[in-house]
Amino acid sequence: MNITLEAVEKVMEQTGVEFKDAKEALVKTDGDVDAAIRLIRPDTKDIGDDIKALIDKLKKIVAEGNVDRVQIRKGDEIVFSMPVNVGIVGGIIGLAAAPWALIAGSVAAFGLGCRLEVVKKDGTTDEVK
Questions:
Q1: Residue 60: CB atoms within 10 Å
Q2: Same domain, 33 and 66
Q3: Do residue 99 and residue 122 come from a single domain?
Q4: For 10-67, what is each residue's pLDDT tens digit?
């Protein structure tokens, strides 16, 4: 196992610990930077898991039908809006993952304070939580 200075610095930067503690964590995790960070800060949560769960819920709602569009709001402003038929067309031409990746990327980019909503065909909106 070879622990590089770059790996130690990354752990230090992400956790705020000193060199010695960062290196010890890397030794315990066989040089795995992400595992070392989780070892030092076990209460941290990967936001990617939250976004995946949110997208899975959204896919289920869209599959049930009666959804016209998907949008992301930050406060009162709509920062992203996509008609559901774009996802259907994407599925037909073999790009089914693209709309979901776009939504997930948008949620991650706009971060906290955003709400993912579905706009139903009757004009009502429901927040996806």
A1: 10
A2: no
A3: yes
A4: 998 888 889 999 999 999 999 999 899 888 876 555 556 666 777 778 778 877 878 8
